[in-house]
Amino acid sequence: IEISKKDFGYFFYIFFFILLASIIHGSLYFSQQWVVIPRYLEYVLLLIYFNRHNPNLNSIFFILRLYLILNFIFVILQQYDLFGEFSSLGYESPANKSDDRPTGLTGGPWELSNCSAIIFFALLLDKDQSNYTKYFYSLIAIFLILVTNSRTILISFMIALTLYSYIQYIHKRKFYLFILLLFFAIIIFILYIQNYLLSRLDIYLELISMFKNFLFYQEKPDLSSLDGRLWSVALRIEHWLMFYKQFLHNSLTIVFGSGATSVYYESTLFRILFGSGIIGLIFVIYSIRNIPLHILVLFLVSGLTLDLLLSFKIFFTMLLYFYINKLAQ
User: Fold this and answer.
1) DSSP states of 162-197 as a string?
2) pTM: predicted TM-score of the whole model, two decimal places
3) With CB atoms counted within 10 Å of each terminal CB, which end of the chain scores lower, N or C?
């Protein structure tokens, strides 16, 4: 198979071999989860398919809109316990659902909200659609993000949408007015919910010490002394700690990574850094330098606590966005 620098997804091909080299290197020290290789090979084959067959943009837009509609329908059915959910165990009836939040046709609420956020921005690249079509599907995507109650993705989406709106619709000469209005909006919002914030500020300030102990002392949080609202982050830190220690094993694991010692990393950033080392991280930073700012922010914020590379659906949705963006330029 001939691969050229002009190929769509060229940098991912290189990253695959960096990851493969890191896994081989990491196997000298730790047991590896070689099962991740077939998943990355699936991604490589997808890229090869898109480069060789060049799918039509109208077909892709149709598939994305149909995907939103189908998920919307199944989310409504799940809300009324008329349909169950799909998981790694297969179909589960409404009585045996593992999560109260709807999942649509995906494997989890975080997967549904991530895909919906990416599709939201992908459909905005369709310059031939009517305003009715644009607003209709945008509202469906936003509804799917909100109904999953995935806070990380909601925050990343709001920041990305703010950046997109500024870049697209606000003239540079109006920049200071935009900043001023945004500043007053934030002040009013804070004053409106100040009692809510004050009652929770002390709790969330504990996150600083949790990450400090994680980064500098390799200490895991004490769940028994934490507020229940911090358990989600605390459990992730406890999970990351094993990979962090493997990363710090010696100078070679810091530079080249420890490979794939687990299937689940619960963070895209830590999967890249701990798995492929500083070399892999530098390469990824170089590779994403031309990504639209709002999409970069969307992936960076959500990727802090979510493993975007593990989900085939999320990767495929990202692939479709970048494919559309490349042809739309």
Assistant:
1) HHHHHHHHS-GGGHHHHHHHHHHHHHHHHHHTHHHH
2) 0.87
3) C
